[in-house]
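Lecture notes, unit on protein representations.

Consider one protein chain, 216 amino acids long.
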Amino acid sequence: MLTYIKNQRRNIKQAIFKYLQESSEHSISFLGDFTEYGSVETIRKILLQARMQGLVPHLSHGVYLKPMHSRFGEVPPPMEAIAKEIAERNHVEIMPTRSTAANILGLSTQVPMVVSFLTTGSSRTIKIGKRATKFKHAVPRNFAYKGKTIPLIVQALKELGEANITEQTKSALSACITKANDSHTFCEDILLAPAWIQTIIKPIIKSNNEALAAQQ
């Protein structure tokens, strides 16, 4: 019986290690992905062995990342992509917040060491090397927007502050609004923004709409 159990665990380990070895670099695995192989405790022990052998660093509770290597060393993973994948797995919504939103929109050239998101899920921080992804639980009102562009702009401008909005900032926002594919949501979404942000954004939207109409 003991020999059978050892062989069974060995087979489970081989199957999981094979899966991890063949998975693409920077792919994320969750503890729940392997429960079909055996008990949670058995899987957790096998994944611990995988971590000790460098196959998959442990990101957070039940979350593992397949590393990517180049001739210069380990390549940092795209934090935003990891955040989106974790959010999809947990069936929660996320929204880039503050410095992360400003960086995405090009309003800040500084790469934040902590990539921050509001979430409908629980608050947590996932560290990867010197960087981290932080999820902060937010009230549903933050996710009442129908589109993605206006809430991203709102978060970015909150980071900059009303006193720091320059013509260069407005020009960058105009470019963002012009390229947006959710312009049909602007009229409703802008009403959810703070008054001072509405004052900045509404003229830009109007100007872009007039320019678009003139081209048609």
